[in-house]
Amino acid sequence: MMSINEASKIAIVTGGASGLGLAITKKLVQSNIKTIIIGRNENNLKEVAESLGELCTYKVYNLQDLKGIPQLIQEIVDEHGKIDILVNNAGINQKKHFMEVTDEDFQNIIQTNTTAVFAMSREVTRFMLEKGSGSIINISSMAARYGIPYVISYTAAKSAIEGMTKAMAVELSPKGIRVNCVAPGFIATNMSAKALDSDPERKNKVMSRTPMGKLGEPADIAEAVYYFATDAAKYVTGVVLPVDGGNSIGF
């Protein structure tokens, strides 16, 4: 059952047209939350928005263009009146041996996964402060929970996200804006299937250290994000929640 309190809420989900972002978008829309998805592929965005109905709209935008983010957020506020929820989900990954990662490789991952999250959060916060409430949910990774080889840039970016979550929460929570983070474990998506199926050794390692003995589902992440987004978590801030079947504590 949707909560009557969610009926007039406005949410933004970056990368909301595919993977975990799509699952999050579906959950918010099904809960009667007007959701604006942001991404680069207009065909995907349009298809998702049309399939989910009038509570889902989209903006085509490349978050690496940091200078345009203030205008993007202003446009959304002009069109929808406010922003109650920001889900910083968009991200890119790169699998490369440490010594093969160039400065450009590293900066590219950091700009999309960390700097854009900072810029989006800052601009959305300007409007959340005006009404004295809001919920920002960042998406981390197991790469920030323990060392994983060949993803140095991604690890640096997601570790920064967890630190930013805590720092933002301390500064913004007294002003009514809660900031939390979901750290997905190994989730059954097309991307993870390709990565793990092509690397049996890594797949065996993932499964052997996951106490629940299975991959998670995108909906598991969506449920955690929804919890942080709503009044069910009204006294929760600065939390990094692993949704990982126990992977981060597995032996």
TrEMBL record:
Q: Name one Pfam family in it.
A: adh_short_C2
PROSITE patterns per UniProt: ADH_SHORT
**Entry keyword set:** Oxidoreductase
A GO MF label: glucose 1-dehydrogenase [NAD(P)+] activity
Checking InterPro entries in the record gives: NAD(P)-bd_dom_sf, Sc_DH/Rdtase_CS, SDR_fam
Q: Which CDD domains match?
A: SDR_c
Highest taxon, organism lineage: Bacteria
Q: Which family does it belong to?
A: Belongs to the short-chain dehydrogenases/reductases (SDR) family.
Name the chain's protein: Glucose 1-dehydrogenase
Q: Tell me the lineage of the source organism.
A: Bacteria, Pseudomonadati, Bacteroidota, Sphingobacteriia, Sphingobacteriales
